[in-house]
């Protein structure tokens, strides 16, 4: 056992002469190296804190300002307008220093104050510049002089070589839209879904709200926006995610797929070794702030706040039920009894699940993280282990897949002491969770439904072989395929996508494998082997585990997933038609939905608000009067369908831009609703708005956030993922046909133009 192996490094014996200590030099060496590593990380964090704190200036600029001020002093010029003399007179230690020393110290203090003032001025100027969003509403390829000037100024004030979090304090706050604008946009969004009588009733309810309750709620919300960093994000995380008492598996967690057409090695342990090593590299760059901040147009910085909790993070279950908390909002004692996100600064191990057993694997040895070949060896030991799971261990992770309250109660009752507490703590404090899956999955064009089964496995697995509370679970399949299941409360999909893109690119293009498919590099044979976690689970707890498993299994069995690989054309052809790819897809979805159901529905599309500090998402309501007019026209061959398509696409693109710039509908109404609960104000309008079901829910994750792989050169190095809600087996086929039909509109136009030229 690893514990026994390590214990021999420290021994003592009791003799008549006293206690005789025996210390191993090897153990002392590792203790020393571990301490050096910890202090090195602290030093890096301290340095990055200073660099980020003074950005867009730099520490060297302080020296320049000091030298400039000192030069003017020696030239007998006072640039401080008497402030240096004032500082000199007020120095409490002036009686113990020479006049020259007092002058130098006063000049340095003045220069430091001037330097800090310049930093604040630069930061405020940059924040003001980043509050300008007119550029996003300009036509693609047509940049106005005002926007060109603005871009130049942003580049000028953005500084050089920013760290990941350098722009955080310069990002503007998310603005609170006016109630009039939000109500107007809301009524416009529901108009195509309601008949005249229903719409008139909604209009009356909305106007009553705008006149009676809204002014008071809006004032308090504006007050919160002045005080809080972001008036939406904290409530969004708490009320949408952490207060939920239903299972997070499927309902909240999401997945990311491996490369579809490429599998670098079919050795499970080797692929996991490279992936884990790449994740450790990513985490190190994250801790050091070495990842470049994402920028729109290569200039406008995006918020990086969500990336802080990617590793060393776990969602801890709470007991309180949603019904009880609804009546008790505002009490400080409730927050602790709800779920919360536990984030730790630095973890040096991960926990691996394989065939019902949990193993603890150290990621560092001698102050350095393990190499891929060493990780492969560790994982292969686990794969070769033939021990049986302990009683209750096989389906233990099902607790994280079922309802939150039984899991929270079981955690308090059965995992608060002894071996269970230590083992659970090992899982919850790990860097992340790894499942060495005993199944074979991945996309196989020769096997019908292989992509569907792959996605379902990533989404829920067997309901007990992923730790759904961890920030993410890395899944390595028997055939070398990978995947990720991510908990949603701490961040949105593009954040995981950023890390996953780095991991896959590093795995394939930087680390690589030997000809036999093993990880490259030497192996330290002195590494301690993986440690099997110990459990003492009573029969009562096993019953709770089984109940949670059955709840999760019902959900998993109800998932009907179909993935559609569309390769007839891509975004390049869509852009040539002068259309937004996003608008094209959304209109195709509306057409497919209408052909399937014969009616329109409330449609959700996620948009990001990361141009604002701590921004997350906003909703774009994709079903509009313009889109419904286009869809109906597609069933009528005599109408000018292409013109209607362009109007609908322009409308959708404008709504997307409004959402990105803080002028969306749903987050504002959501916060007004939360505020109404705190103030005990009953609002029929807000109740009705928030109870409306989203029949069609869509989202997208950007590709090529890091540009580590040129997809034009390596077109097979792509992945896939996603899904949406309608419960109809024909919907996927309708999407494909809808996209082809819309493309045909442009083909017909091109054909007519060529005929005219002839």
TrEMBL record:
It comes from Hucho hucho (huchen). Belongs to the carnitine/choline acetyltransferase family. One of its GO terms (biological process) is carnitine metabolic process. Residues 1-47 form the Carnitine O-palmitoyltransferase N-terminal domain. Its main location: mitochondrion. Pfam families: Carn_acyltransf (PF00755), CPT_N (PF16484). The active site is at residue 488. Its EC number is 2.3.1.21. GO terms for molecular function: carnitine O-palmitoyltransferase activity. Pathway: Lipid metabolism; fatty acid beta-oxidation. Catalyzes the transfer of the acyl group of long-chain fatty acid-CoA conjugates onto carnitine, an essential step for the mitochondrial uptake of long-chain fatty acids and their subsequent beta-oxidation in the mitochondrion. It is a multi-pass membrane protein. The chain crosses the membrane at residues 50-75, 104-122. Gene3D superfamilies: 6.10.250.1760, Chloramphenicol acetyltransferase-like domain, Choline/Carnitine o-acyltransferase, domain 2. One of its GO terms (cellular component) is mitochondrial outer membrane. The lineage of its organism: Eukaryota, Metazoa, Chordata, Craniata, Vertebrata. It catalyses: (R)-carnitine + hexadecanoyl-CoA = O-hexadecanoyl-(R)-carnitine + CoA. Keywords: Acyltransferase, Fatty acid metabolism, Lipid metabolism, Membrane, Mitochondrion, Mitochondrion outer membrane, Transferase, Transmembrane, Transmembrane helix, Transport. It is found in: Mitochondrion outer membrane. The keyword Translocase does not apply. Residues 174-729 form the Choline/carnitine acyltransferase domain. This is Carnitine O-palmitoyltransferase 1, muscle isoform.
């Amino acid at each position: 056992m690893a514990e026994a192996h390590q214990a021999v490094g420290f021994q003592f014996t009791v003799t008549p002469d006293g206690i005789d200590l025996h210390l191993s030099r090897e153990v002392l060496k590792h203790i020393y190296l571990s301490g050096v590593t910890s202090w090195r990380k602290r030093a890096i964090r301290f340095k990055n804190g200073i660099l980020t704190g003074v950005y867009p200036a730099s520490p060297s600029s302080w020296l320049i300002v000091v030298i400039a001020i000192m030069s003017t002093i020696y030239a007998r010029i006072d640039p401080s307008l008497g402030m240096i003399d004032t500082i000199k007179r007020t120095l409490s230690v002036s009686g113990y220093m020479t006049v020259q020393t007092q002058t130098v110290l006063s000049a340095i203090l003045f220069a430091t104050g001037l330097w800090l003032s310049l930093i604040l001025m630069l930061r405020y100027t940059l924040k003001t510049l980043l509050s300008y969003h007119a550029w996003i509403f300009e036509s693609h390829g047509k940049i106005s002089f005002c926007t060109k000037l603005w871009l130049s100024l942003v580049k000028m004030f953005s500084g050089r070589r920013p760290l990941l979090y350098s722009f955080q304090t310069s990002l503007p706050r998310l603005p609170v839209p006016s109630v009039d604008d939000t109500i107007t946009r809301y009524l416009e969004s529901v108009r195509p879904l309601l008949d005249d009588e229903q719409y008139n009733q909604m209009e009356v309810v909305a106007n009553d709200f705008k006149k009676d309750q809204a002014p008071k709620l809006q004032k308090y919300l504006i007050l919160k926006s002045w005080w809080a960093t972001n008036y939406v994000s904290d409530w969004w995380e708490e009320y949408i995610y952490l207060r939920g008492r239903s299972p997070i598996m499927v309902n909240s967690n999401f997945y990311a797929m491996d490369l579809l057409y490429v599998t670098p090695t079919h050795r499970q342990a080797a692929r996991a070794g490279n992936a884990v090593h790449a994740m450790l590299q990513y985490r190190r760059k994250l801790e050091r702030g070495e990842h470049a901040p994402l920028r729109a147009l290569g200039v406008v910085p995006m918020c990086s706040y969500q990336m802080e909790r990617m590793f060393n993070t776990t969602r801890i279950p709470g007991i309180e039920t949603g019904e009880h908390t609804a009546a008790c909002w505002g009490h400080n004692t409730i927050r602790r009894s709800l779920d919360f996100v536990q984030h730790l600064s630095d973890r040096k191990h991960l926990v691996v699940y394989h065939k019902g057993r949990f193993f603890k694997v150290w990621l560092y040895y001698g102050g350095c993280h393990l190499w891929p070949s060493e990780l492969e060896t560790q994982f292969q030991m686990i794969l070769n282990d033939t021990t049986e799971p302990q009683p209750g261990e096989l389906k233990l992770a099902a607790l994280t897949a079922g309802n939150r309250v039984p899991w929270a109660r079981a955690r308090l009752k059965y995992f608060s002491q002894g071996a269970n507490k230590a083992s659970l703590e090992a899982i919850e404090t790990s860097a992340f969770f790894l499942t060495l899956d005993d199944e074979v999955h991945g996309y196989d064009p020769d096997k019908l439904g292989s992509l569907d089964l792959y996605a379902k496995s990533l989404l829920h697995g067997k309901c007990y072989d992923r730790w759904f509370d961890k920030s993410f679970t890395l899944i390595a399949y028997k055939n070398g395929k990978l995947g990720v299941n991510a908990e949603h409360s701490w961040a949105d999909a593009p954040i995981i996508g950023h890390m996953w893109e780095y991991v896959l690119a590093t795995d394939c293009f930087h680390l690589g494998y030997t000809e036999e498919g093993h990880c490259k590099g030497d192996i330290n044979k002195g590494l301690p082997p993986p440690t099997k976690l110990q459990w003492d689970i009573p029969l009562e707890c096993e019953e709770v585990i089984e109940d949670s498993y059955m709840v999760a299994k019902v959900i998993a069995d109800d998932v009907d997933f179909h993935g559609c690989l569309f390769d007839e054309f891509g975004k390049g052809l869509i852009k040539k038609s002068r259309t937004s790819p996003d608008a094209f897809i959304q209109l195709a979805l509306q057409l497919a939905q209408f052909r399937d159901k014969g009616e329109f529905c409330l449609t959700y599309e996620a948009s990001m608000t990361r141009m604002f500090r701590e921004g997350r998402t906003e909703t774009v309501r994709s079903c509009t009067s313009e889109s419904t007019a286009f869809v109906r026209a597609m069933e009528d061959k005599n109408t000018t369908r292409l013109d209607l398509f362009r109007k609908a696409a322009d409308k959708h693109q404008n709504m997307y831009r409004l959402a990105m710039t803080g002028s969306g509908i749903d987050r504002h109404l959501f916060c007004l609703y939360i505020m109404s609960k705190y103030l005990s104000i009953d609002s029929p309008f807000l109740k009705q708005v928030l109870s409306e079901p989203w029949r069609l829910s869509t989202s997208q994750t950007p590709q090529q956030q890091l540009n580590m792989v040129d997809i034009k050169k390596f077109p097979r190095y792509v992945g896939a993922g996603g899904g949406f809600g309608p419960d109809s087996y024909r919907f996927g086929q309708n999407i494909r046909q809808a996209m082809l039909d819309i493309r045909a509109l442009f083909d017909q136009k091109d054909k007519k133009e060529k005929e005219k030229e002839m």
